Amino acid sequence: MILAIESSCDDSCVAIINSSSLELIAFDKSSQESAHTAYGGVVPEIASRLHTETLPAMVLKQKEHFKDLKAIAVTNAPGLSVSLISGVSVAKSLALALNLPLIGVNHLIGHIYSLFLDSEAKLPLMVLLVSGGHTMVLNISGDGDIEVLAQTSDDSFGESFDKAAKMLELGYPGGPEIERLAKSGDDRAFDFTIPLKGSARMEFSFSGLKNQVRLAAANSSDRAGIAASFERVAVAHIIDKLSKIIAAHKPKSLGIVGGASANLRLRASLNELCEKHSCELLTAPLKYCSDNAAMIARAAKEAYYKRAQTSVLDSILSLQISPRTPLSGMNIFNF
Ligand code: KG4
Ligand code: ZN
């Protein structure tokens, strides 16, 4: 069994998987949302303090499984540095105490495995990664090599929901709040422009749309109309760029991962897009779209046999956090 710890942002999570059957043996998640909601975003100092308070007790709750563990996995990149440090410190202590190898896992590779929690990875695959910190289109080759095909030049898709929600005086995280309010609004109430429409640039940009929302919020009280129009245009921007990428690369499968992949309007539009291009759409269970340790444990299973060769102490000494690591050139089996 592998025990994994995830603490890269504002969720403390511990999971244990059986590395041969991929069965999830334990799953415990503590969300900090209520602590950050008053600030409209994650406050790193609060996040770090809460991880430090929560994680040791969450790990100790799994004591009965300690004798069956073969390795300890932990998210070490990318993320908020003070949040990553909390998880990595607890993981190092546990690895040292139990004399087990330590496996550092890239959080974004973890999100990719949310598609394959209890199955082998199905490759080649195109992935749309939409989280709070990232908006990326990835090509993953049959050998697991990652190529970044497009990314955002400013805000991420999820972040733009968080910022729009703040302007509309909704809570944090903004994604679910905007989605809820948008249901009762007219998505044509505001004629926001689709970012980079008609431009050959293969990238995403959400900061212009954010400003359009800011102006609308200052001049209108139709909050549901703003939320619905914003959601329509944010999704239309993803579809506009992605349809060109799909037409050029003709993938057989497209996977969508990350917290914002829970958005139902995005899912419905991607479904339509994939049908048009005879491409299979792979989604993660809603529960595992947002940050969680099950996906980290699943990813760690791939690196386990290689890392198990390293001495326990070496792995503890060499594992560092890497808050801003690039994903390009990494491999989903060998990281
Ligand atoms: O992957 P995730 O849980 O954390 C990061 O790794 O960043 O993603 C969190 C992001 C937040 O920006 C949140 O507002 C967004 O995902 N999100 C959504 C929805 N649910 C979460 N965005 C749009 N619609 C949603 N239903
Ligand atoms: Zn994430």
Task: Describe the structure in your own words.
The protein has 335 residues and is of the alpha/beta class. Helix content is 42%, strand content 18%. It contains eleven helices and ten strands. The protein has helices at 33-36, 44-60, 81-98, 107-113, 157-167, 174-182, 207-219, 223-249, 264-276, 293-307, 312-318, and strands at 2-6, 11-17, 24-31, 71-77, 102-106, 125-130, 135-140, 146-151, 253-257, 280-283. The strands form two sheets. Strands 3-2-1-4-5 form a five-stranded mixed beta sheet, sandwiched between helices. It has a five-stranded mixed beta sheet with strand order 8-7-6-9-10, with helices on both faces. Strand 9, helix 9 and strand 10 form a beta-alpha-beta unit. Helix 4 (107-113) packs across helix 10 (293-307), helix 5 (157-167) runs parallel beside helix 7 and helix 7 (207-219) runs antiparallel to helix 8 (223-249). It is globular. It starts with a strand and ends in a 17-residue tail after the last helix. The mean pLDDT is 96. The structure holds 5'-O-[(R)-(carboxyoxy)(hydroxy)phosphoryl]adenosine (KG4) and zinc ion (ZN). 5'-O-[(R)-(carboxyoxy)(hydroxy)phosphoryl]adenosine binds at residues 9, 131-133, 158-159, 161-162, 173-176, 179, 258-260, 262-263, 290-291.
